[in-house]
Amino acid sequence: MTVLNLKRQFKWSLVSQAYSQGVNIGSQLLLLPLMITLWGAERYGAWLIISALPSYLSMADLGFAQISANDMTMRMARGDKDGTVVVNHTAWLFNAIISVTLIVAFGVFVLLFPIEATFNIVNVGESHIALATFLLGVLTLSSLAFGVVGAGMRSVGLLWLVVTTNTTSRLTEVLLLISCTYFGGGFLLAASVMLLNRVVVLAPILIWFYRRYPHLRPAVSKADLQLMRQMVVPSIAYMSYTLSYALNIQGVSLLVGMFLGPVAVVTVNAVRTFTRLGRAAASIVISSIEPIFAQLAGSDANNHGKKAFQYLVAASVLGSVIYAVGVILFGEQFLEWWTRGTVVHQDVLINLMLLAVVFEIGWYTLQTPFVSTNRHS
Q: What pLDDT band is residue 89 in, cutting at 50, 70 and 90?
């Protein structure tokens, strides 16, 4: 793998990550005031709660797709195509077992668990909350499957395609959610349309990719159970990131909804979304450079990896300082304007969440070379 090819990959990954974070930030900034206007704070808070429940399904693959992506990328960098196929089949076997188990378990959960009473969303004008929650769960599980597809794409230098596809799906989901709300649709219609959209967006990409790279098609015939056991160790360690994210983002929404109600969920979600814009910007660079570290490690180009890490740390420090100053000076005024006066006088919460985000950016920056090469345990 030449330095020129790595630079080209990094450039396209950077563009796709900028597109991803632009859509992520833009949709969050657009969605909250629109949904408060169309649905009201209480009903939108209820939607945030039922959207948070299926998010825990994303922990089910134990980070296996990410670990597989790192392993496959390093194997392809040193020309081990057969080994890449074995890892791919092993990842698909693991994913199939987990997905089938979870779709049944989550169906039983939404059928038996009193969602409306537990989270104070009885009087929001929705009659199919359990079914809508289940469909959102299926949507989350489809992301797990695409994670294995993405591992194969990343191993051949197509991280930009993974990111672009996921982002386009997310963008169209947001637009469809707004459309359903505008035309009077409820939770069930919104969840159904979002799930259908995922199929429509992913299908042509999958067809193109597997025609071009047939050796990476979904299969389990060459799955290696011993390799699976070996990969589970770094996978479980990687799952700590997914778990912390779920507790930090969705767990807080569920606890606040349980004790303070859906309107308070909107307040906390707004402050958190705003303060995490800096983390989203940092992800553009960090996520783009991860496969580069994996390929450099696979080809033993340690000097290039050291230089890339130095640039990454410098960019992280400079970006964190600029962002923190901006939030401290203008954060409260922006939140009041953005939420149409729903969120006011939250300076303590803003500063605490900002401190957490700055720490998080530094931590994720320093760990990048280790996470990229499955040495993060």
A: very high
Other beta carbons within 10 Å of 185: 15
Scored b (16 or more CB within 10 A) or e, 275-310 reads bbbbbbbbbbbbbbbbbbbbbbbbbebeeebeebbe
Nearest to 266 by CA among 251, 276, 279, 256: 256
**DSSP class per residue in 115-162:** HHHHTT-TTSS-S-HHHHHHHHHHHHHHHHHHHHHHHHHHHTT-HHHH
Dist. CA 168–CA 157, nearest whole Å: 19
Task: Single out the residue of 99, 85, 53, 95 nearest to residue 250, CA to CA.
Answer: 53
pLDDT tens per residue across span 319-334? 888 888 888 888 888 8
Nearest to residue 138, comparing CAs of 197, 63, 57, 59? 57
Nearest to 128 by CA among 202, 218, 176, 189: 189
Tell me the range of 8-12, 14-18, 21-25, 160-164 where mean pLDDT is highest. 160-164
Which residues contact residue 64 at a Cβ distance below 8 angstroms, ignoring those fewer than 6 apart?
Answer: 91, 94, 95, 231, 232, 235
Report the amino acid identity of residue 245. Y
- pTM of the full structure: 0.67
pLDDT of residue 269: 78
* Residue 239 clears pLDDT 70, i.e. is over it: no
pLDDT tens digits along 103-144: 899 999 988 888 888 887 777 777 788 899 999 999 988 888
Two tokens, residue 43? 């009903």
CA distances from 13 to 91, 241, 283, 326 (A): 23, 22, 11, 27
Task: Give CA–CA dist 289/372, Å, rounded.
Answer: 9
What mean pLDDT is reported for the chain? 82
Find out whether 339 and 40 touch, Cβ atoms under 8 Å: no
Query: Which three-class secondary structure state does DSSP give residue 58?
Result: helix
Counts for the chain of helices (H) and strands (E), in that order: 14, 0
> Phi and psi for 283 in degrees, rounded to 5?
-65, -25
Q: Which helix (H) or strand (E) holds 173?
A: helix 159-182
Q: Which of 98-102, 191-195, 252-256 has the lowest mean pLDDT?
A: 252-256
